[in-house]
Amino acid sequence: MKFFVDTAEIDAIRELHDLGMVDGVTTNPSLIMKSGRDIKEVTKEICDLVDGPVSAETVATDAAGMIAEGRELAKIADNIAIKVPLTWDGLKACKELSGEGRMVNVTLCFSANQALLAAKAGATFISPFIGRLDDQNIDGMELIQDIRTIYDNYGFETQILAASIRSANHMKEAALIGADVATAPPNVIKAMASHVLTDKGLDAFLKDWAKTGQKIV
Ligand code: E4P
Fold first, then answer.
1. Cβ neighbours of residue 3 under 8 Å, at least 6 residues apart?
2. Disulfide check for 53: which of 24, 27, 57, 107 has CB 3.0–4.6 Å away?
């Protein structure tokens, strides 16, 4: 499973990137707002740092507007994936932009039918939002499984980009189902390294080591 980082914070991306944990980046208007940066400026910086796809989201609500914004965002760098929402106009924009050979990430997907339409419209990525479904007492992970089954049934090449990931457990579940990509905030990726028994075991080893009075270097 590829790891995308869901943030527009350069330092956080750099730290994970230096560890080889970043296959791409996703941003959205809320993350750009949080960064306090200019969208084109910060997206360019991210694209210079990361080789993989960097999603930049359109904000128009009509297809023509999304297409114009998508083309403009794509000028930032070759690794831009244009993000459009899963609306009827978003699907039109997806069809047009992917037909031009651009990467398109169709976002705000909350149903398997929406994902099926995005694949038919030529999406490079479909972004089903797990956490926001869980917030509504709907099993977000079931959606990932349904999309995996449908895409595999018909050999769709659209990549499932599990999004709105809130926990390390979401990462594990998405990987078990076979999501192609998971995008998560930096703290969730870091949390994957934590285990209470690791902390406890290390603590015991260090206490015993101190009793030996030895040094390695
Ligand atoms: C995906 O591309 C979105 O930016 C993101 O995963 C949304 O996550 P949230 O529901 O935690 O805001």
1. 16, 21, 22, 23, 24, 181, 182, 183, 184, 189
2. 24
State the total domains in the chain: 1
Identify whether 40 is a catalytic site residue: no
At residue 117, the 3 state secondary structure works out as helix
Whether 217 maps to a domain, the answer reads: no
Q: Whole domain around residue 158: which residue ranges?
A: 2-212
What does the pLDDT look like over 82-134, one tens digit per residue? 999 999 999 999 999 999 999 999 999 999 999 999 999 999 999 999 999 99
Residue 201 CA to ligand 1 center (angstroms) comes to 35
Residue 119's CB: how many other CB atoms inside 10 A?
22
Q: Is 85 helix (H, G, I), strand (E, B) or coil?
A: strand
pTM metric for this prediction: 0.97
